[in-house]
Amino acid sequence: xxxxxxxxxxxxxxxxxxxxxxxxxxxxxxxxxxxxxxxxxxxxxxxxxxxxxxxxxxxxxxxxxxxxxxxxxxxxxxxxxxxxxxxxxxxxxxxxxxxxxxxxxxxxxxxxxxxxxxxxxxxxxxxxxxxxxxxxxxxxxxxxxxxxxxxxxxxxxxxxxxxxxxxxxxxxxxxxxxxxxxxxxxxxxxxxxxxxxxxxxxxxxxxxxxxxxxxxxxxxxxxxxxxxxxxxxxxxxxxxxxxxxxxxxxxxxxxxxxxxxxxxxxxxxxxxxxxxxxxxxxxxxxxxxxxxxxxxxxxxxxxxxxxxxxxxxxx
Length: 315
Prior knowledge:
The chain is built from 12 helices and 6 strands. A hairpin with a 2-residue loop joins β1 (9-15) and β2. The protein is of the alpha+beta class and 315 residues long. It folds into 3 domains: 1-85, Transcription Regulation, Sacy, Chain A, CATH 2.30.24; 101-203, PTS-regulatory domain, PRD (Orthogonal Bundle), CATH 1.10.1790; 214-313, PTS-regulatory domain, PRD, CATH 1.10.1790. GO terms for molecular function: RNA binding. InterPro entries: CAT_RNA-bd_dom, CAT_RNA-bd_dom_sf, PRD, PRD_sf.
């Protein structure tokens, strides 16, 4: 039995750094040379069943792994940095969409993902499949004149600044290489969620939940203090979202700051201090603020006092 006969064969070159392959599933006693010949023949036919994703379909990722490769080529998994096994029906649907994409569109999207990898570092290999499907649909919508809206742009920008920056770079690249379609910043926010999920190896639901929680806190603060997130010159204020994100990160890592002026701040800024306490209770998920978090409440109260003077009131 030759080692080459057991190597995966490329179904689709996703980019210079990622390929979609099918792993031979052979059975004991099967003639491997014949199986390899059959696989090669099947790969080069137009039989649509051959391009349908199966449980043997993988994404192989590695620097230069797809360079000058073509469908039907054998490739050694040893050349890949990581591999991703497609098992779930949901992921199989993503693969079906990817296999139906125009090669030029797929090349542009995958090159954009490579830019994000260069900026963010290692991402889960599934990002090539998931984002290819997502972005191709967004390009189609934008090309048909449909407006892409994302109500969480500011929250995503604040919660995931590196991913948002990478997503903006991706959108800029795609827009410059795609005719008749311009993706807006709203789409960059959607992409940023997928990039964060790929960095953590989780589903996109987790970063989306973080953004939604931040949006809820922003609405709560604005409602309690009678303020908006619009500055007096009409621009969007990002400072509150950034401050709450930084505080949430400290709470998550249990790095609570003390504040020797806490009692004075509580006395002189009662409204802001009360809101700050409630925000922290929501972050910590407790009914009453613990004493070790009182210093953080004082810092937030001072911030809120200055912030509400820089934005338009809600009434």
